[in-house]
Amino acid sequence: MNRKPTAGWQTFNVFNVLFLTLLSLAMLLPFLNVLAQSFSSSEAIVTGKVLFFPVEFTSINYQYVFSDAAIWRSFGVTVYITIVGTLINLIATASLAYPVSRPEYAGRNGIVIMVLITMVFSAPLIPNFILMKNLHLTNSLWALLLPGAISAFNFFVMRSFFLQLPSELIDSGRMDGCSELRMIWSIVLPLSKPVMASLGIFYAVGHWNTYQSALYYINKPALWPLQVKLRQLIASEDISIDPNSSQFSGLAHMDPEGIKMATIIIATIPIILIYPFLQRHFVKGMMVGSVKS
């Protein structure tokens, strides 16, 4: 039986759509402004003519960024720690979450409690830095990969997913002679694509936006990730172009704002492009633990 929506429900829908539209615009419009400035001339940016569309369209800002070897090096560092770090995160998180989700593992409750404690109490910065220094991880990319190999929150999400796997499926695999590693590889992981994709996005975004850890533990500019390089570029008040460069002839004193905006776009676009390919798994993964049978 179809019921006619009440006046209160219709009013709620109107305000809900209006609120979500305004919220979406609040997130989208600043990005459009940055994108427009990255394609605008220095005169248009300085005079404040740029709003949401480029003024005096030019690609010189991107040409400058792409010609900077230091930015490409930082981009490569960020891509490396994002790919390698995400793989380490997923392997380490699954390696801990799966055993403690099985009832036959006797010490699982103690491990869960210890992981839970890390969500409430975290070590201060100075002890962490001393630990990294004593382990000889400072000025090394391992300082950005190993300390956060397992996120406590993501561990509990993955553990909740493994708890929902039918025990009969695991038992049938054992009866067929599968070893634990073979069962994980052939049965558990293929069924875990939604949660792996969801947590993979969380981990990848965290690695892509790595800033504080690199600032604390890495002093070599050659190992700086893109976010640290971007911060250095934004904080710099003197961005000039080699006057001897034929590629940028006549633009030795161009306004730095366009270059900064172009760098921000380059640092943002890649992680945005990845999401549509994982959206289906991401939505499924977000439902983990929300429905109990």
From TrEMBL:
<dbReference type="Pfam" id="PF00528">
    <property type="entry name" value="BPD_transp_1"/>
</dbReference>
<feature type="domain" description="ABC transmembrane type-1">
    <location>
        <begin position="75"/>
        <end position="278"/>
    </location>
</feature>
<feature type="transmembrane region" description="Helical">
    <location>
        <begin position="258"/>
        <end position="278"/>
    </location>
</feature>
<dbReference type="InterPro" id="IPR000515">
    <property type="entry name" value="MetI-like"/>
</dbReference>
<feature type="transmembrane region" description="Helical">
    <location>
        <begin position="183"/>
        <end position="205"/>
    </location>
</feature>
<comment type="similarity">
    <text>Belongs to the binding-protein-dependent transport system permease family.</text>
</comment>
<feature type="transmembrane region" description="Helical">
    <location>
        <begin position="77"/>
        <end position="98"/>
    </location>
</feature>
<feature type="transmembrane region" description="Helical">
    <location>
        <begin position="110"/>
        <end position="130"/>
    </location>
</feature>
<keyword id="KW-1133">Transmembrane helix</keyword>
<feature type="transmembrane region" description="Helical">
    <location>
        <begin position="12"/>
        <end position="32"/>
    </location>
</feature>
<dbReference type="InterPro" id="IPR035906">
    <property type="entry name" value="MetI-like_sf"/>
</dbReference>
<protein>
    <submittedName>
        <fullName>Protein LplC</fullName>
    </submittedName>
</protein>
<keyword id="KW-0813">Transport</keyword>
<keyword id="KW-0812">Transmembrane</keyword>
<keyword id="KW-0472">Membrane</keyword>
<keyword id="KW-1003">Cell membrane</keyword>
<feature type="transmembrane region" description="Helical">
    <location>
        <begin position="142"/>
        <end position="162"/>
    </location>
</feature>
